[in-house]
Amino acid sequence: MMDYRQKIIDEAAEMFRTYGIRAVTMDMLASRMSISKRTIYEVFRDKEELLRGVLKCMSEKQGTILQKYFGESENVIEAIFKMLDMMFEHFKNMSPAFRLDMNRIKRELVDYPDMMKEIPYFSTNAEILNKGISEGVFREDINVDMTSRLMLEMLKMSHDQEIFPHENVDFVDSVRGFYINFLRGISTPKGLELINLYDKKAKDLN
What is the pLDDT of residues 159-202, one digit of tens each? Predict the structure, then answer.
């Protein structure tokens, strides 16, 4: 059953990203996998439970990648730039329909904020800040808890189409600049030098 669960999640994730959450039915998923719809319902009570399973799986995969970034990077600033690249790569691979459906879910699900906290690049802010302070790239006088909350809200805003219209071709540059400027405000001179270094490298690649 566990093997089927992962296969269903993987297939549903691909279909959600391609066609949007609303457009994908349990019948379509069953047909795509050449299994009965009953088999899916034996694992997931309904489509909402399946979506939660998909988001949780995405979170776990992203968490593994983030740990790899922080383990391999020379400093926390380099890791953050890698994290931003991963975020925007995921965004580019999402269909407009999927992004619209996620906005709808944000409005309809009462516990959506708690779901978002499970996404690694939302939930590891305090860890990032403490690591940055210990490395001397973030100021020691910042309130880690408050700054972590601000970072969470800032990244959540990046998913709000009213603030950052996703049809705007400059969306990635806008959000990236917004986030990096925030980091500049909490950085030490050493941190600012590193931000400038990795920002220039990223721009040179693009």
Answer: 555 555 555 445 667 778 888 999 999 999 999 999 999 999 88
Q: Residue 147 contacts by C-beta under 8 Å, 6 or more apart in sequence?
A: 125, 129, 186
Strand runs (DSSP E) across 80-119, as ranges? none
Q: What is the pLDDT of residues 56-85, one digit of tens each?
A: 888 788 778 888 888 899 999 999 999 888
State if pTM tops 0.85.
no
3-state secondary structure of 188: coil
Q: Tell me how far apart the terminal alpha carbons of the chain are, to the nearest angstrom.
A: 45
Q: Domains along the chain? A: 57-205 (1.10.357)
Query: 139 to each of 56, 120, 191, how far by Cα in Å?
Result: 33, 23, 9
User: Comparing C-alpha atoms, which of 16, 5, 71 is closest to residue 40?
Assistant: 5
